[in-house]
Amino acid sequence: MSRSQDRSEPRRIVDPRELKALSHPLRMRLFGELTARGPSRAVDLANAVAEPANSVSFHLRQLARYGLVEDDPEHGTDGRERWWRATTDEGLIVDFHDLEAMPGGPAAVGAFKQVTESTAHALTALSFRHLDESTEGPKTWFNNFVLHLSRSELDAFLDDQWEVTSRWMQRSREVSNSADGETRHTYFGVSNGAPLGQVLETEEAADRTGDERSGKSQ
């Protein structure tokens, strides 16, 4: 499954099968590593994710089958080594509403949400557990903020935020294989938001459900 893709634009997921192909922890990790590192060989990715190279190659081929990664024509020209790259440098756009209306959509969206929610929970737990101000080694951080904005102001803020993120994603790929002696780690971050009132209402509803399941009463 292939379609033309401008690498300077995010890739829009338009087929539930694409989303389903990505809804696997190792495949999401591999896609993330390629986005952060730029073109890589399966053996390099295997070392990065601590998985056998044959398993990594299999999952890369599955991602390629649905147009999420591809051969990098600028590397491996001698035919002895296969280099892979993500089909976009700018991430993915997923319209869950549209996908859920397609055959196979609800299952694909459900699987993707399950994996991403699990990853987000793990990120939050890890961030709180290892918060520190050390200047050496991998860093863990947690930032939150509250804004009072109109919709147009919020859209402008998100455009600014993405511009900064995109610039550093490009820098990440540029320095990934440099021989400058720096130790680098692949970091995963999430930026999401919602009206504060809705967040608190959802949290209160979850607390009530938890109390009911545990048999607690007011």
From TrEMBL:
Q: Where is this region: Disordered?
A: 172-218
For this protein, the record's InterPro entries field holds: ArsR-like_HTH, HTH_ArsR_DNA-bd_dom, WH-like_DNA-bd_sf, WH_DNA-bd_sf
Residues annotated as domain HTH arsR-type: 17-98
Q: Which domain of life is it from?
A: Bacteria
Cite the Gene3D superfamilies for this sequence. Winged helix-like DNA-binding domain superfamily/Winged helix DNA-binding domain
Known Pfam families for this protein? HTH_20
Task: Name the residue ranges with Basic and acidic residues bias.
Answer: 205-218
Spell out the protein name for this chain.
Answer: ArsR/SmtB family transcription factor
| Biological source species | Flexivirga alba
